[in-house]
């Protein structure tokens, strides 16, 4: 069971990386030129220069060839972190950290993207369960590591008219600020931290 969850988590991570920022973000309607000093809103976030800058960083990471190391975790357990993968550039800076976790009936992949200075710029968290429910959370940070925007989307099979593809689900503002794991700002430390098994 662990292997299949790891495969599901890895598949979610790969799908997230392949379309984590550019494909889904470009699915919205452009509102034309947006001033970089303008407030980020649901109407302009896709074309806002601050978000575009973060997407550019993510796209660069997605196509780059970085040293990749993967650890399998929680042997013998079906709950908790199953895998950690870090991508490190030639200067020793972790540019992406992917945490795959799950249980018997769900898988979660959290992908964290860092700029060349090692600052967390984007978090892409996905969750899926065996019932077909799926959710995504996107958190955007500026060059100082301060959160500038977050947005989510989900499909719930219990809905009256469920969308069957997460890419067709509408983006919504988050109702509360999502708290990311404190280790997200120190990816090398998280990669080397003790396993988190239930």
Q: Secondary-structure blueprint of this entry?
A:
Layout: H1 2-19, H2 22-25, H3 49-63, E1 67-72, E2 80-88, E3 94-102, E4 106-114, E5 120-129, E6 134-141, E7 147-155, E8 172-173, H4 187-192
Antiparallel strand pairs: 1-2, 2-3, 3-4, 4-5, 5-6, 6-7, 7-8
Describe, in plain words, how this protein is organized in 3D.
Helix content is 22%, strand content 31%. By secondary structure, the chain is an alpha+beta fold. The chain has one domain (2-192). The chain has an eight-stranded antiparallel sheet with strand order 1-2-3-4-5-6-7-8. A hairpin with a 7-residue loop joins strand 1 and strand 2. The longest helix has 18 residues, at 2-19. The two termini are 15 Å apart. Residues 1-31 have low confidence and may be disordered.
In angstroms, what separates the terminal alpha carbons?
A: 15 Å
Q: SSE order, as H and E?
A: HHHEEEEEEEEH
Question: What's the number of structural domains?
Answer: 1
Coarse shape: flat
Helix content, binned percent: 10-25%
Strand content: 25-35%
- Counting helices, strands and paired strands, the structural category is alpha+beta
How many distinct beta strands? Answer: 8
Radius of gyration: 17 Å
The mean pLDDT is: 83
Widest sheet: strand ordering: 1-2-3-4-5-6-7-8
Low-confidence stretches: 1-31
By DSSP (H or I, 4+ residues per run), the number of helices equals: 4
Biggest pleated sheet: 8 strands, antiparallel
């Amino acid at each position: 069971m662990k292997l299949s969850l790891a495969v599901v988590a890895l598949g979610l991570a790969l799908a997230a990386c392949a379309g984590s920022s550019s494909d889904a973000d470009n699915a919205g309607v452009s509102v034309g030129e947006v001033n970089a000093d303008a407030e980020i809103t649901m109407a302009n976030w896709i074309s806002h220069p601050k978000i575009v800058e973060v997407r550019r960083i993510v796209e660069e990471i997605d196509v780059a060839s970085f040293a990749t190391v993967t650890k399998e975790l929680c042997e013998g357990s079906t709950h908790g972190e199953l895998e950690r993968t870090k991508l490190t550039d030639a200067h020793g800076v972790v540019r992406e950290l992917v945490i795959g976790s799950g249980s018997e009936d769900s898988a979660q992949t959290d992908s964290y993207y860092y700029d060349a200075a090692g600052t967390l710029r984007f978090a892409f968290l996905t969750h899926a369960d065996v019932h077909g429910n799926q959710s995504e959370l996107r958190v955007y940070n500026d060059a100082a590591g301060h959160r500038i925007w977050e947005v989510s989307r989900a499909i719930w099979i219990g809905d009256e008219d469920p969308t069957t593809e997460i890419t067709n689900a509408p983006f919504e503002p988050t109702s509360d600020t999502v708290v990311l794991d404190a280790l997200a700002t120190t990816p090398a430390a998280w990669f080397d931290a003790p396993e988190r098994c239930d």
